[in-house]
Design brief:
Layout: H1 3-17, H2 23-33, H3 41-48, H4 57-69, E1 73-76, E2 81-84, E3 94-99, E4 105-108, H5 111-123, E5 132-137, H6 140-144
Parallel strand pairs: 3-5
Antiparallel strand pairs: 1-2, 3-4
Length: 146
C-alpha cells in the first residue's frame, strides 16, 4: 500500500474519531510508513529535524503516543522501537517477527495464537489488556546469506 493511501486512511480514521492528525503527527507517520523495520524515537527525531529543525524529543514522543493510541503503530518493546501497522483501523493483537540481522519486521495476525494465548491467560486468572508477541531470529533473506 502506498504512503499516500496510508496517510489518507489515517486522516479519515482521525476525522471519524474526532482526533487531530496534525502536520507533525503526519510527518512522523510518513517517516514510519517508509520503513520496513522499527525505528527508535531519537532516530525519528533526527529524520524529522530535516523538515522541522526545531523538533525536540517531546515532539516525537507526543506524536508516537498519539499514533499508538489511534492504533496506527506498534511499539517493539524488546528494541524500544516503533513500527507502522499497515492493518490499522482497529486495535488488534500482533505477532512480530524481528530479524536480528537486518532489522526487518514482519507483522502477523494469527487468530489461533491469540485465542490460545488468551485461553492460557484466563486459566491463570489473568486479563490481557494489550498483546504484542515478539519473536527474534533471521528473516528468509538473511538466513539465505548464511
Amino acid at each position: 500500500m502506498s504512503t499516500e493511501t496510508l496517510v489518507n486512511r489515517a486522516r479519515t480514521i482521525c476525522e471519524q474519531n474526532g482526533a487531530r492528525f496534525t502536520s507533525i503527527r503526519e510527518k512522523v507517520f510518513r517517516l514510519l510508513a517508509n520503513l520496513n523495520g522499527g525505528i527508535g524515537a531519537y532516530e525519528l527525531l533526527e529524520q524529522l529535524k530535516q523538515t522541522e529543525p526545531g523538533a525536540k524529543p517531546a515532539t516525537v514522543y507526543r506524536a508516537l503516543e498519539f499514533l499508538t493510541e489511534q492504533g496506527f503503530i506498534h511499539k517493539i518493546e524488546s528494541t524500544n522501537a516503533f513500527l507502522l501497522c499497515h492493518h490499522f483501523g482497529q486495535h488488534h493483537p500482533a505477532q512480530l517477527l524481528i530479524c536480528d540481522q537486518c532489522g526487518n519486521v514482519t507483522e502477523l495476525h494469527s487468530d489461533l495464537l491469540h485465542e490460545e494465548f488468551n485461553r492460557q491467560a484466563v486459566a491463570q486468572g489473568f486479563v490481557i489488556k494489550h498483546q504484542t508477541i515478539e519473536a527474534h531470529g533471521l528473516c528468509k533473506t538473511c538466513k539465505a546469506k548464511q
